[in-house]
Amino acid sequence: MFQSLSDRLSGVLDKLTRRGALTESDVVEAMREVRRALLEADVALDVVKDFTEKVKAKAVGAEVLRSVTPGQMVVKIVNDELVAMLGSDAQPIDLHAAPPVGILMVGLQGSGKTTTTAKIAYRLTNRDRKKVLMASLDTRRPAAQEQLRVLGEQTSVATLPIVAGQTPLQIARRAEDAAKLGGFDVIIYDTAGRVTVDEELMDEVRDVKAAIHPHETLLVADSLTGQDAVNTAKAFDGRIGVTGIVLTRADGDGRGGAALSMRAVTGKPIKLIGVGEKWDALEDFHPGRIASRILG
Ligand code: GDP
User: Fold this and answer.
1) Who is most buried in 171, 234, 276, 284, counting CB within 10 A?
2) Element (H or E) spanning 136, and its range?
3) Domain named SRP54-type proteins GTP-binding: which ranges (predicted)?
């Protein structure tokens, strides 16, 4: 992820640091190149503008330009602004609530929602030693509940037994009862997705959310879809409210535009990124580390 952006930015910033003295126009020219590199990485235009303006405003100050190492100071400003744009601090899944803590997974069909449900369950079970129950509320796709059952078997995580003919709400209630009875710490609810954002999907998810009051509502979005992923997140957040984002297929995304724009556009943190098809291919999103990776 971010390879071409990283190469481009390193090129621009290396040029600045190799120079001894810097003028305002050197910085302005460098920011023009940074802007081009970010746009090529498919970062949202407003985010790019805002970013380069902020860097420019801080970098052309007399203190920076007259310092002994102006180039390095500009690099530090770029780094700090990048971290701020990505959300500053890592935001792990929050489990601080009375058990069973509900995590509602929402998103478009094919975004990786069911896989991510299993990955999170796998991580909470094996790393955090939580007792996790997974429940599929997807009554639209006949195979969806069965798919989750199979994933539960593969990851050795409990799934709610399938009862034919129940509505998503009935399944959710049954999951809650089962989790309380069984002493589970966490319930992860997988929901139905659609190919596009539509009213019916939003209404259904909103009703489920209103009924179960999940502690976390995670929007799963496909990194490869770039700005569409950002727009999807915005639509879901506007209609049902999300607490965070999981960006999947980061392993195949050479540009990283969704990851870079998501926080600034939606105001919601990327909590996790999916980096492969295996159960453990899930990473925390650390703005500081990502910025370091981008700037080499
Ligand atoms: P859903 O329709 O949103 O539930 O999507 P699925 O969970 O069924 O995922 C669709 C496909 O994406 C599956 O083949 C997954 O293995 C794959 N997938 C999910 N997350 C990732 C990821 O982070 N990286 C890669 N490479 N593939 C993923």
Assistant:
1) 171
2) strand 132-136
3) 269-282
- Please count the other Cβ atoms lying within 10 Å of the Cβ belonging to residue 74: 28
Taking the CA atoms of 60, 85, 96 and 128 in sequence, report the sign of the dihedral they define.
negative
User: Left (φ > 0), alpha (ψ -120 to 50) or beta: where does 92 sit?
Assistant: beta
For residue 241, which phi and psi values (nearest 5 degrees)? 80, 120
Which atom of ligand 1 is nearest the CA belonging to 110?
2
Evaluate whether 100 touches 190 at the Cβ level (below 8 Å): no
Ligand 1 centre to CA of 109 (Å) is 10
For 246-255, how does the pLDDT look when each residue is reduced to its tens digit (9 = 90+)? 999 999 998 8
Provide the terminal-to-terminal Cα distance of the chain, rounded to the nearest Å. Answer: 12
- Is pTM beyond 0.90? Reply is yes
What the block records as the tokens of 131 is: 């007792």
Mean pLDDT of 138-155: 94
Ligand-binding site membership of 113 (annotated): yes
| Ligand 1 in reach of 112 Cβ (< 6 A) | yes
Q: What's the 147 CA to ligand 1 centre distance in angstroms?
A: 12
| Ligand 1 neighbour 193 (Cβ under 6 A) | yes
DSSP per-residue letters across 206-240: HHHHHHH--SEEEEEEEGGGTHHHHHHHHHHHHHH
DSSP state of 243: S
pLDDT digits (tens, 9 = 90+) for 158-217: 999 999 999 999 999 999 999 999 999 999 999 999 888 888 889 999 999 999 999 999
Quickly state the pLDDT bin for 273 (edges 50, 70, 90).
very high
